[in-house]
Structures are given as structure tokens and as C-alpha cells.
Design goal:
It is built from 5 helices and 6 strands. It has a 3-stranded antiparallel beta sheet. The chain has a 3-stranded antiparallel beta sheet with strand order 4-5-6, with helices on one face. It is extended and about 95 Å long. It has helices at 13-37, 46-56, 88-101, 106-124, 167-173, and strands spanning 63-69, 73-78, 83-87, 127-128, 137-142, 145-151. Helix 2 crosses helix 3 (88-101).
């Protein structure tokens, strides 16, 4: 009975290099396509980067990300490569100190107020139109009907502005009652 013996042939190194290059090109293409379809969300805000930059004395834009390893070490990864380790407790203490003294930028303030408004609208069963970012004002609607206009404004020279500490209080001043869950 005849037997056939198979032997493994060596792949020329140039073929391996070409295959590795083609695979790397395909991987890059797939990453690009995936990013276009579902962009990865950056876990760090610009304020986070400012705080980290202040702590370790680097430009905020140079910080790519941070993570905690083993519950002990905070690692800061940089955009241009490289990373630095810090003790978690020391880093947390410094974050609290810097947060307390770092002023909010106008963009950060708008983002915070926008989030607060969104949450307050949910509580009252409202929705709002486009936000005028220069005056941070918007029209509120409930069941398709206009409820009122809220926003931040310069104090009036004559008359009295109604001021509230939160978006929920502002909506309450309009006479809107909180939505009741059925």
C-alpha cells in the first residue's frame, strides 16, 4: 500500500513580510471604518486633562488617558507615547486640591448647565428647543405647547430678574409641576 509523506515547506521571508504588511494595512483600514461608524468616546473631559496637566505640570493636550492598576498605581498615558506612575492616594488628594481651585471655562460651564437643564426637563416632562449658547437660553415645551423661556441673562437695569439656584427651581418658577409617574 503506497503511503504519502507530507513535509512542511519553509515560507520565504519576503512572503511573510508581505503578509504581515497586508494584515497591518487591513487592521488599520478596519479600525478607521469602525471609528467612522462608532467613534470611541474619550473618557477624559477637557477639565480632566486640565486637572491632570496642572498636577504633573504638562500641557493638558499631551494627556491621552489615565487608568488605575492594582488599586494602587495611577498611570498617566501621553499622546506622544510614554507614561508616568503615581501613588493613587497622593494623586486623589492632588485632584481634590486642584479641582477646588481650578476655575470653570465657559465651555465647561455650558456643558454643566446643559446637563442640568436636560435632567430638570426630564423631571418635569418637558423638552427644550435649540439652545442659544450666547445667552444660554431656550424655550421649554410640554406636549407640544410652549411653556416658557429660561436662560442666563445680564441683570436688568430696571425691574427685577427672577433668579434661581438650579434649573429645577427655574422651571418651578414658571409654574410647571413635576411629572408624576403612572
Amino acid at each position: 500500500m503506497p503511503y504519502t509523506t507530507y513535509t512542511q515547506q519553509a515560507i520565504p521571508s519576503s512572503s511573510v513580510d508581505e503578509q504581515a504588511l497586508a494584515q497591518a494595512e487591513l487592521d488599520t483600514h478596519l479600525e478607521t471604518q469602525a471609528e467612522a461608524v462608532a467613534p470611541t468616546q474619550d473618557p477624559l473631559t477637557s477639565r480632566d486633562r486640565r486637572i491632570i496637566g496642572e498636577i504633573i505640570e504638562v500641557q493638558p493636550e499631551s494627556v491621552r488617558t489615565i487608568w488605575i492598576e492594582g488599586g494602587i498605581t495611577v498611570w498617566v498615558q501621553f499622546v506622544e507615547g510614554g507614561r508616568l506612575p503615581f501613588d493613587r492616594n497622593w494623586f486623589a488628594t492632588r485632584v481634590a486640591e486642584v479641582k477646588a481651585t481650578l476655575p470653570e471655562t465657559p465651555l465647561e460651564r455650558n456643558e454643566r448647565l446643559s446637563d442640568e437643564l436636560e435632567k430638570a426637563c426630564t423631571v418635569f416632562g418637558l423638552y427644550h428647543g435649540e439652545i442659544d449658547w450666547l445667552g444660554f437660553s431656550t424655550k421649554l415645551f410640554q406636549d407640544g405647547r410652549f411653556v416658557g423661556l429660561i436662560g442666563c441673562a445680564r441683570p436688568r437695569q430696571y425691574g427685577v430678574n427672577r433668579v434661581a439656584a438650579s434649573a429645577e427651581q427655574v422651571i418651578g418658577l414658571l409654574g410647571v409641576r413635576a411629572a408624576v409617574a403612572a
